[in-house]
């Protein structure tokens, strides 16, 4: 159903309107005072409220109202919404708190609201929200009177918190970024992120969208909507919850689903630019609202600075974030040598030294360089030496900021690259200069650098997604264990788990499942030394910890000693001993590949470091399944550079990047094929000379156990060590 009646209603009723200052219903009436449509206060006492005749109930209003803003105590909300439904109301904003965020009783009340909304096909924003602001339409359904100060503009903000919606909207306004739509979702009993994002995707006047996310109960729908939207206009996202604030967050919206690392990774995979704080979000939105970079795998930023110190801060921020500052082409450096004194730095960043009349020509030369996809300029406004605003006109795209959002085109040159400007000086002077600019201006070099980083992240994401779109869709694996693509609730032992991953194309060691000692001795003879002997029991998940793994077996004597140890462990468990005898793999770098079914995001694939590599990066790399090959390679290349190039004498992982990507794709395929697998864990995946080999595999059926940890944590074996 369309959200037009919610965000651009022709008529609005305020249920719970009040003439008493300090009441939410009074504040809402004042905020809606400039509504171009019809405004109806609803109050059982009747009388005049804010210059309007009030009605004792919404049923007494002489027309079917499009939007009802409900500001009554929580216990009265279901009845008020039911009355709205009978009166033909099409949308509602429920400002009242006291629902799922307060506990089980509040959750039950919220469930009643959801049922009523569905029964009457009412689109509901909230409950527990301050509302929304639509300045271009003059609809300010928010109980903060100051929303009248918000000016129309190209930016939309969708926040889980009504308070953050307001904070971001005013922060953007302070930097000159006007608002197209600002929405506080609250508890999202009906209207959620994906509904608003799809609404904005179809709005030509929205040029950039900012998201504030606490928890995502509909994570898959969120990411799919981000993907649809980011293909048309940039999306910038802030995910909170890096620290342990779970209880506080639950008290706010009543739900906290989708861990911090997983949500951020999923948003990046879907095409969003993910930032770390509200200021960075607004700075990124300001840059992206004007112009996007052309899609490239690793976009390059050209930097020109009139002062070396700020230029160093910019270069440090960009390079520290992995943003390329490309070497300038020969013809560019020759031109700079003609324009600048010999002692200046004429590569990238370009330090002009004391600015002179050649500054404009320097900007044009760097912007035209074939390796430069965006230009970042830092210069002080020095009336006696340099007018940087006038100089910037040479590299500012004509009409920038007013036409439909462009990409930088395929041709190089000053009219095709986005430009960012940073400057220092008195605030009043900077305010005056900003009004003259058609490019974003930032008041510190680090803020400008982070905005350039956002441009590059957006361009790289669009390139990756476009590349993925050209790939064949990854197929699902075969399902020999169950005709319906399930395991049938069976618990798999290691030999069966490895057979399963082998059907998806993952290499496993040659081995034998042995029911007795004689079979184990025969396996040693057939496989050849050295071998590894393990207990074969589906209930023993951490075999190494319990003495169930014995590597380096070279002869029958060693084999019998290992079998004795396995027999003793089996006796403690009260089960007959079974053995897994496998050819021992050669030494190599060890990784961990996992897949888990998250309740908010669905199938998720994980790549982590094993062995000595754990000290390089303890946090796993996460992506949603299905994966494209570009996604899988992106995961591999997100491993620490030291590992990619060869750590402690080990061969470089980059040499096996395609093969490791294949394992990640296979792991995703298994989870997509077998719908009752809760967790798949390959630990370790050893990078042997013949390619990656799964030395151990664990498959957890959802009918047997559910994963207990948050999805950004590694699977059990990644936390416990090799089994």
Describe the structure.
The protein is an alpha/beta fold and 723 residues long. The chain has four domains: 4-215 and 230-259, NAD(P)-binding Rossmann-like Domain (Rossmann fold, 3-Layer(aba) Sandwich), CATH 3.40.50; 291-469, Rossmann fold; 510-583, ATP-grasp fold, A domain (Dna Ligase, domain 1); 590-720, D-amino Acid Aminotransferase, Chain A, domain 1 (2-Layer Sandwich). The chain has 23 helices and 30 strands. The strands form six sheets. A seven-stranded mixed beta sheet has the order 9-8-11-10-12-13-14, with helices on both faces. Strands 16-17-15-18-19-20 form a six-stranded mixed beta sheet, sandwiched between helices. Strands 25, 26, 27, 28, 29 and 30 form a six-stranded antiparallel beta sheet that branches. Strand 5, helix 3 (77-86) and strand 6 form a beta-alpha-beta unit. The protein starts with a helix and ends with a helix.
> Biggest sheet, open or closed, and with what strands and sense?
7 strands, mixed
Instruction: Identify the CATH class of the largest domain.
Output: Alpha Beta
Fraction in helix = 25-40%
Residue windows where pLDDT falls under 50 for at least 5 positions? 245-257, 399-404, 409-414, 475-483, 704-723
- Strand content of the residues, in percent? 15-25%
What is the CATH fold-level name of the largest domain?
Rossmann fold
What is the overall silhouette? Answer: flat
End-to-end separation in angstroms reads: 52 Å
| Overall pLDDT metric | 89
């Amino acid at each position: 159903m369309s959200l037009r009646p919610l965000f651009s209603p022709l008529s609005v009723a305020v249920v719970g309107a009040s003439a008493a200052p300090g009441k939410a219903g009074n504040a809402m009436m004042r905020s809606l005072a400039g509504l171009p449509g019809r405004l109806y206060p609803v109050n059982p006492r009747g009388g005049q409220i804010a210059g309007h005749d009030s009605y004792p109930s919404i049923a007494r209003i002489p027309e079917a109202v499009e939007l009802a803003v409900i500001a009554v105590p929580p216990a009265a909300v279901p009845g008020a919404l039911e009355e709205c439904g009978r009166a033909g109301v099409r949308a509602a904003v429920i400002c009242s708190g006291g629902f799922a965020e307060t506990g089980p009783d509040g959750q039950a009340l919220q469930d009643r609201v959801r049922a009523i909304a569905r029964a009457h096909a009412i689109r509901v924003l909230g409950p527990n929200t301050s509302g929304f602001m639509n300045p271009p339409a003059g609809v300010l359904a928010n109980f903060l009177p100051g929303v009248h100060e918000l000016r129309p503009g190209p930016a939309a903000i969708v926040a889980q918190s009504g308070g953050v919606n307001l904070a971001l909207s005013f922060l953007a306004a302070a930097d000159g970024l006007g608002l197209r739509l600002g929405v506080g979702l609250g508890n999202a009993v009906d209207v959620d992120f994906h509904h608003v994002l799809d609404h904005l995707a179809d709005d030509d006047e929205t040029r950039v969208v900012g998201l504030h996310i606490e928890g995502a109960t509909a994570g898959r729908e969120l990411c799919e909507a981000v993907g649809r939207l980011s293909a048309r206009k940039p999306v910038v996202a802030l995910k909170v919850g890096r620290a342990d604030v779970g209880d506080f967050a639950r008290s706010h919206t009543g739900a906290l689903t989708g861990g911090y690392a997983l949500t951020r990774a999923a948003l990046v995979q879907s095409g969003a630019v993910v930032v770390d704080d509200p200021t960075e979000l607004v700075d990124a939105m300001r840059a992206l609202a004007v112009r996007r970079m052309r899609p490239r795998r690793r976009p390059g930023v050209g930097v020109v600075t009139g002062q070396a110190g700020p230029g160093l801060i910019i270069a440090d921020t960009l390079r520290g974030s992995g943003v390329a500052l490309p070497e300038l082409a020969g013809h560019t450096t020759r031109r700079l040598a003609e324009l600048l004194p010999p002692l200046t730095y004429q590569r990238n960043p370009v330090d002009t030294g004391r600015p002179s009349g050649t500054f404009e020509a320097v900007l044009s030369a760097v912007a035209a360089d074939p390796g430069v996809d965006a230009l970042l300029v830092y210069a002080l406004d020095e009336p006696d030496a340099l007018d940087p605003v006038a100089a910037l006109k040479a590299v500012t795209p004509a009409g920038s900021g007013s036409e439909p959002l462009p990409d930088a085109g395929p041709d190089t040159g000053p009219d095709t690259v986005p430009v960012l400007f940073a400057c220092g000086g008195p605030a009043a002077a900077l305010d005056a200069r900003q009004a003259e600019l058609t490019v974003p201006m930032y008041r510190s070099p680090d803020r400008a650098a982070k905005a350039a980083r956002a441009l590059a992240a957006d361009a790289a994401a669009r390139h990756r997604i476009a590349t993925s779109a050209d790939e064949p869709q990854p197929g699902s694996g075969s399902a020999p264990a169950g005709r319906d693509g399930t395991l049938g609730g069976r618990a798999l032992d290691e030999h069966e788990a490895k057979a399963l991953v082998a059907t998806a194309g993952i290499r496993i060691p040659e081995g034998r499942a042995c029911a007795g000692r004689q079979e184990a001795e025969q396996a040693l003879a057939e496989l050849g030394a050295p071998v590894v002997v393990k207990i074969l029991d589906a209930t023993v998940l951490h075999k190494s910890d319990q003495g169930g793994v014995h590597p380096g077996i070279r002869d029958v004597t060693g084999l019998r000693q290992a079998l004795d140890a396995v027999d003793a462990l089996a006796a403690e468990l009260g089960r007959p001993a079974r053995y897994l005898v496998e050819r021992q793999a050669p030494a190599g770098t060890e990784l961990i590949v996992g897949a888990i079914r998250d309740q908010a995001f669905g199938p998720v694939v994980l790549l982590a470091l094993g062995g000595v590599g754990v000290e390089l990066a303890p946090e796993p790399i996460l992506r949603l399944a299905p994966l494209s090959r570009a996604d899988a390679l992106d995961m591999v290349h997100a491993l620490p550079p030291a590992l990619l190039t060869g750590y402690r004498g080990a061969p470089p992982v980059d040499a096996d990047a395609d093969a490791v990507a294949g394992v990640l794709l296979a792991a995703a395929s298994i989870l997509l094929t077998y719908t009752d697998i809760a967790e798949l864990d390959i630990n370790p995946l050893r990078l042997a000379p013949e390619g990656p080999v799964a030395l151990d595999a664990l498959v957890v059926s959802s009918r047997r156990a559910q994963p207990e940890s948050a999805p950004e944590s590694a699977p059990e074996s990644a936390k416990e060590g090799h089994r």
